[in-house]
Amino acid sequence: MLRDTLQTLLGAYGPTGQEHLVADKVRELLSGHVDSMRTDALGNLIVEKFGAEENAKTIMISAHMDHIGLVVTDIEKEGFLRVHAVGGISPRLVAARKVVFADGTPGIVALEPNTKGKKEPEMSDLFVDIGADSREEAEKLVSIGDVAVYAPDFTALGRHKVASPAMDNRCACALLVELLMYAEGQKNTIVGVFSTQEEVGLRGARVAAYAVEPDIGLALDVTAWGDTPQTKLPAVKLGAGPAVKIMDRSMIASPYVRDKLFEAAQAAGVAVQREVLAFGGTDGGAIQLSRGGVPTGTLSIPCRYVHSANEVIDLRDMEGALKVLLQFIELA
Questions:
Q1: Active site residue 198
Q2: Catalytic residue (choose from 19, 178, 198, 275)
Q3: Using CA atoms, how far apart are residues 205 and 280, in angstroms rounded to an integer?
Q4: Domains, the chain, ranges and CATH?
Q5: Band of pLDDT at residue 118, cut at 50, 70 and 90
Q6: What is the pLDDT of residues 284-293, one digit of tens each?
Q7: What was the pLDDT predicted at 153?
Q8: Rounded Cα gap, residues 85 and 80, in angstroms
Q9: What one-character-per-residue DSSP string does 189-235 give?
Q10: Considering the chain, what percentage of its residues have pLDDT values greater than 70?
Q11: 53: burial class by Cβ within 10 Å (0-12, 13-18, 19+)?
Q12: 327 phi-psi bin (left φ>0, alpha ψ -120 to 50, beta other)
C-alpha cells in the first residue's frame, strides 16, 4: 500500500507554485478517511483527523508537495528554450535529462559546449530542446513562464530501494497519507498539511502554521545521505531507519518533540538515526517560529542524490517511519 501510494504521488506534475494536481491525488486517496479537507490561499491542502480525547492536542504534521523545476524565461529564434531554476537545481545535474511540462510536452535539457572549461556551469548555460525548429513553432507548445520538471521515472533498485524524481518530497507526502489512513481513534487531533512552495522558502508551511495554531509541529521530509564513496556526512545511511533531526540550517529541533520521537521509535521497536545536517531546512523551520513559537521536530527519510532526476530511498525506512508516527501521535 505504501509503495502504491508513493508511485501515485510521484507521477503527479507539481512544481513549486503549481502543486494543485498533487493535492488532487491526495484528496482522492484520503476521501472517506478524514474528518475535513480544505485548501488555503497559498494552495496548502489542510486535512484534519479529530482526536478522541476532550483535551486533545493539535499536532500539525507537514509534508511539502512541490518539486523543483525549470521556468521558461525566453525562447530563441531557433526554438530552444532558455530557463531558470525554481528551487535548488544544479546545472550540472540537470544537463542531458528529460523534462516534461504540465501538458505533457517533453524536452531535453542541454548544456552549451563552451562551458566545458568552467568549474561549474551556470543556469544561463542551459537550454531546453523540445524539438521545435523556430520560435513560432515552440510558442505553439510552450509559453514564457511555463515550468518543466524532471520526467517521471520510477525504478526499483535491488530488493528495497527505489529511485525517482520528486522523491523530495512525495515520499513524505505518501507517508502522511498513510498515517491519516491508518490512524483511528487516536487521542490527539492530527492536522496534516500538504504544503506548497517549500523549495523557495518554506512559504506554505509558514501561513498554514499561523492558521492552524498547533500545539506541536512536525515536518516530514527527506534528508541527505552519507553512505556512498567519498560522502560520509551526514552520518545517515539508507536502510538503517528513519532519522530524527537534531538540527539543520532552518531549526534546532525542540527537545520535547525530538525526545518524543525517540520514545515513539522505542515503543514501536524501530531503529532510528540521529540527523545533524549542516545545510538545508524543512517546513519545521517555519512551523517552529509561527506566532509565539511551536515545539517542533522533523522526522526524515534518508535519500541519496537529492534534487537530481534519480533520488533514491529505501522503502524500509518509510515503513519504519510510519510505525514511529503512529506511536508519536499517541505519546505527544
A1: yes
A2: 198
A3: 16
A4: 2-67+166-331 (3.40.630.10), 69-150 (2.40.30.40)
A5: low
A6: 999 999 999 9
A7: 96
A8: 16
A9: EEEEEEES-GGGTSHHHHHHHHHH--SEEEEEEEE----BTTB--SS
A10: 99
A11: exposed
A12: alpha
